[in-house]
Amino acid sequence: MHPFASYVLRSYYRATGWNEDNLYANLTRSSNAILDFSVPRGLHLSISKAPNGLFNTSYSMNAMPSLNGSVGYIFTSCNLDVKSSGSVRLKDMVERFKVYDQPRRPEGKGEEWLAGERVDTRDYLLYGRLYLPTGRLDALYSTRLSPTLQALVATISDPRSTLSSEKRSRGDNVSNVMFSLQHDIGKWCSEYTYSAEDGMWGVRVLHNFGRLRNPTEPPEDLNSSPGTRPKRVDEEEATGGGLKGRVSAGAEFYISAKERSAGVSTGIRFTTLPDATPPSFQLPQPSSSPLAQSSRSPPSQPPTTITALFNPMMGHISAAYSARVSRDLSMCSRFDFNVYSYDSEWTMGAEWWMRRAASKYEDELEPSLIPPEQPSVPVPQAESVDIPSDIRGVVKARISTNNNVSLMWEGRLKQMLVSLGFVSDLSSRSKPIKAIGLELSYFSAG
Amino acid sequence: MPSEETKERITKLVEVGRTVIHYGWIPLIIYIGYTRSTPQPTLIKCVVSVPLFDLGNF
User: Fold this and answer.
1) Complex ipTM, two decimals?
2) How deeply is A303 buried, as exposed, middle or buried, from its count of CB atoms within 10 A (0-12, 13-18, 19+)?
3) Contact state of A54 with B36 under an 8 Å Cβ cutoff
4) Do residues A386 and A396 make contact, with C-beta atoms less than 8 angstroms apart?
5) To which protein family does this belong (chain A) (predicted)?
6) Burial of A234 (0-12, 13-18, 19+ CB in 10 A)
7) Chain A residues with CB inside 8 Å of B26's CB?
8) A232-270 pLDDT, tens digit each
C-alpha cells in the first residue's frame, strides 16, 4: 500500500503531466510490483487529511516492534484531486503489474497572461516529515523547471548523526542531501544525480525505440489494423504469433571520488503495447458507431513485460518475465544470477485481484489510457465510467528458491485501507514466521 | 587551496544552514500552505488537521 505522501506525489506528477515511468530507475517496476512487495512489519496506523487541494497533513504511528510516530506536511502549487480512503481507486494505492503507456514528450501547462504580464508560475511540491522521538527530518522539494525538465532535492537530516560518530561509521541514520535533475523528451529520458554524503555522481539514461506516440492521436490506433485495410490480391494472411510491443534500453553510471568506487548497470525491457480501448468500449457496438471497426481487429495480446538487467562490475544478471494471464491474475518469474560467484535465485510471484461475488461490471478503466478524444464519441456504455469499482482487494504472493515465502492481502474495510501480510522462512524450523504485520490507513479530503 | 580558517568558516556555515533547514522546513511548509491556500484556512487547521470528525462514519 502506498503511503499517503507517495499517493499525493503521484497525484502531483499526474496533475503536472510528468511521466515518472519513463525513468531508468523504474525499468523493472512491473515485475517489482509482483515480486518485491513490502510486507508491513508490526502494527502501523496512519491518518491523513487534505483540508484543501493544495495542502495535506499526515500522521502515522508504528507500534509493536517499537513505538514511534511521524508527522508530515505536503504542499503543492497545483490543485490535486485527492480522494478519501473510502472512495479512492484501490488500484491507485497499490503498486501493481501494469503495462505502461507509450511515452510521450511531456507538455507544460499553457502560458497564462494577465494585463500583458505572464502570471503562470512554476509547479512545485514541498514535503516534510518529522519523526518522533528521534527528531529525524525527511524533506523533499520538487519543481518543474521547464516542460521537459524537473529538479528534485531530497534531504534526510538526523540530529543524532552529528553526535554519535559510531553510527556514522556504521552508515545508518546519516544525514544526506541528494540533488536530481530529470530530463524527459519522450524518446530519451536522462537523470543526473548527486549525493552529498558520499560525493557520488550518477547518470541514468533510458531510450525508447520505435515511434513515439503523438499526444494528439489516440494511443494505439486500432482502426489501422490489417483487418480494416483493403487487401492486396497477392497479400498473404497474417501468421500471427509473437507479441507486438516496444523496446526500451537504458544504462546507469555512478562514480564517487570520496569512496573511490564506481558502478555501471545496463538494462533492456520489452513491453507489449497497452490495449488502449477501455473495456466498456469493447462491448458489441452498433454498426453505426465509429468504433465498430475495432471489434474486427485481432484479439488483444496478453499484457506482458520482459526485462533483463546486467551489472558488469558485480557480474549480476537479472531476467524477469511478467504477464497478466487473466483479467484478475498477473504472474511473474525472475531469475537472478551472479557470473562470478554462481549464486542464483529464482523467484516466482502472483497478484490476484478479488472482486465482489456478483460482478457485473467490467474492469476499472485506466485513467491514463483513456484518450482525450474518446469521451466525445457517443457510446451507449460510457456511463459505466461512473460506476464504483467492484474490486475488494488484492492478494500478492511470492516464493523464492532461498525458501522465503511472502503473502499479503491489501484491501478496503469500511472506509479504511488495510494491508495484512507475513514473511515466512521455510528452512527454519525454530522460527518459521520471520515477520508479520498489519497496516491501517485512513485519510479524508475536504 | 582555501586556508584552514576559510574551511572552518564553510563548515560552520553548512552546520548553521543544516540547523535552519532542520527546524525551519516544516514551519515553512505550514506558512506557505497557510498563505497560499484559497480559501485561507485557520492557522490551527493547517498545523493540526486530524480527520477525527470524519471517523464518525465508521
Assistant:
1) 0.84
2) buried
3) yes
4) no
5) Belongs to the MDM10 family.
6) exposed
7) 73, 128, 130, 137
8) 666 565 555 677 888 999 999 999 988 888 999 999 999
| Three-point CA angle A117, A118, A119, nearest 5° | 110
Residues of chain B positioned with their CB less than 8 A from the CB of A126: 28-29, 32
Closest CA to A42 of A60, A59, A62, A61: A62
Question: Apex CA A168: angle with CA A165 and CA A172, to 5°?
Answer: 140
Task: Report the alpha-carbon distance of residue A182 to residue A185 in Å, rounded.
Answer: 10
> Where are the extended beta strands (E) located within A115-274?
117-118, 124-132, 137-146, 149-157, 176-184, 188-195, 200-208, 245-256, 261-272
From the number of C-beta atoms within 10 Å of its C-beta (0-12, 13-18, 19+), residue A242 rates as: exposed
| Cβ within 8 Å, pair A155-B58 | no
Question: pLDDT tens digits for A395-424?
Answer: 999 999 988 899 999 999 888 999 999 999
Q: What are phi and psi of A215, to 5 degrees?
A: -60, -20
3-class DSSP assignment, residue A140 = strand
Q: Which residues pair with A391 in a beta bridge?
A: A355
CA A408 to chain centre: 18
* Cis amide leading into B39 (omega within 30): yes
Cβ–Cβ gap B32/A75 under 8 Å:
yes
The one-letter amino acid code at A132 reads L
Cell of A425: 522462512
Mind giving me the DSSP string for B17-49?
HHHHHHHHHHHHHHHHHHHH-SSPPPHHHHH--
